[in-house]
Design goal:
about 60% helix; Rossmann fold; mainly alpha
Length: about 475
């Protein structure tokens, strides 16, 4: 009997989480159930007290998921198809609950049998080993796995297929050998996408109060703003990771968001949770060196962004109002960090300006989605027929921001702050140019970025914004 025939004659048991799919269903299910109803969070300790198997099954009964959208290991799938066509018996052996495991097995269509977790039995580690050896005998099967819990099964298998191993499985493979299907290594680009480093530029709004107060060369205030920037940027990255966890299902149905690190399986959820903890620790450490009021603003930002990730993003209009408020909160954070008084004019301008940009973001999402009339876009509270009202509201908010700016330029505080206030008058049409151009491009389907990111990357917007900044500086000289 040749090597291939010998291989086909032995059943192959395949692990699910981290092996067949590049994710962990328990973590995914946990975020799905919390997103569906945050109150289930309080039931988790009770279910866990009854055992991990009970926890998995209780969560699985309360969620809906699409097995076709999961990130499968295509190299392993190709191997399984080849073996199946040759007549090999293939078994799905997973610690995931039956309701999820059987759906995936049905979708894949390669398994003869499913061994999985039931409410009274967590099919992992030694339990999985005993079940497989009871069915096939010690050394009577091959096994594909990826992690620490799979090591007892590797020891009992005739041959191990180590897939995208964690450090424990990699260590076992180094000692015992076997087939290895490696996963791509984490790159700096992947980590940057996880952190969404390009979004940190939004936190430059923290410097706005200092600039408008003409404290350009105050080293102490600059350092305070830099600390505040670090605190907000790391906090924002932590919440972006949390947002990705709650949005996994929707991201996988999106043309570009499916490539995000967690949706694609390039990074694991436990790795992301560890990164969140580190980022929040850095954020709080930076906030420690700033006034307590800044810490309060930072906590408000964390609470608001968490609420947005869990539920507000799916609420009609409340989502864009909260987004606009979060931009304004960054300006308030700049005031809190430096002790500069909050300006009514600045807050009024920012709320209208950023409301317009938040509305254009939703408008672009609707324009890029094809849905039947009356059906809401995935993960949002908007329908296709809402496009016109969003555009009208967005343009109205843009003109309101320009009007507030014009009224500020003509106010008495401006005359006291600026030696040449007449130089500020072009700022109002500059704001109108920026916002109207964004809306026109959005209507033409020529804008696909976040509006803030678009302004930063677009050379025309950079040129006009630079001219406005020069006028602002010259007016204060």
């Amino acid at each position: 009997m040749d090597a291939r025939s010998e291989r086909i004659a032995v059943p192959l048991a395949v692990d699910l989480d981290g092996t067949l799919i590049a994710t962990d269903l328990l973590w995914e299910s946990l975020f799905l159930v919390i997103r569906k109803n945050p109150l289930w969070l309080f039931m988790l300790p009770y279910w866990l007290w009854q055992g991990k198997a009970r926890l998995k099954c209780e969560i699985a009964e309360r969620i809906e998921f699409d097995p076709a959208a999961l990130p499968y290991r295509e190299t392993l799938l190709a191997r399984l198809r080849e073996d199946r066509e040759a007549g090999r018996r293939i078994v799905l052996a997973t610690a995931s609950p039956r309701r999820l495991a059987e759906k995936i097995a049905e979708h894949v269509g390669l398994f003869d049998h499913v061994i999985c977790t039931d409410p009274e039995c967590n099919m992992a580690s030694d339990t999985k080993r005993q079940t497989l050896t009871g069915l096939f005998g010690d050394g009577g099967f091959d096994y594909a796995g990826n992690g620490h819990a799979d090591i007892p099964v590797f020891d009992a298998a005739r041959r191990a297929i180590v897939v995208a191993p964690d450090r424990h499985a990699a260590g076992w493979h180094a000692l015992h050998g076997g087939e290895l299907i490696a996963a791509p290594k984490r790159s700096l680009a992947t980590l940057a996408r996880m952190l969404r480093v390009h979004q940190w530029v939004k936190n430059a709004l923290i410097f706005v109060p200092m600039i408008l107060a003409h404290e350009y060369f105050n080293v102490a205030l600059i350092l305070d703003c830099l600390l505040a920037f670090v605190a907000f940027s790391t906090a924002a990255s932590a919440i972006y990771i949390l947002n990705d966890f709650f949005d996994l299902a929707n991201d996988r149905r999106h043309a570009t968001k499916r490539n995000r690190p967690f949706a694609s399986g390039a990074l694991s959820i436990p790795f992301g949770i560890g990164a969140m903890v580190v980022l929040l620790c850095i954020s709080l450490a930076a906030a420690f060196f700033l006034p307590p009021v800044f810490g309060a603003v930072l906590c408000l930002y964390l609470a608001a962004t968490t609420a947005y990730s869990i539920g507000v993003k799916r609420m009609l209009l409340l989502d864009v109002l909260l987004l606009a408020g979060l931009y304004t909160l960054r300006i308030i954070a700049g005031c809190a960090a430096t002790g500069i008084a909050v300006s009514f004019w600045l807050l009024a301008f920012s709320i209208f300006f950023f409301l317009s940009l938040a509305l254009v973001k939703r408008y672009v999402e609707l324009r890029s989605t094809v849905l039947p009339e009356g059906e809401r876009i995935a993960g949002r509270g908007y329908r296709m027929e809402d496009q016109e009202i969003l555009a009208q509201a967005g343009m109205a908010a843009a003109f309101s921001s320009a009007l507030v700016l014009a009224l500020y330029i003509d106010s008495s505080p401006t005359a006291q702050l600026y030696n040449s206030p007449w130089l500020l008058w072009p700022l109002s049409p500059i704001v109108l140019y920026l916002t109207m151009r964004i809306w026109i491009l959005a209507r033409r389907d020529e804008m696909h970025d976040d509006p803030i990111v678009f302004i930063i990357r677009d050379w025309r917007s950079q040129l006009v914004s630079g001219f406005g900044a020069a006028l602002l500086f010259a007016a204060g000289i």
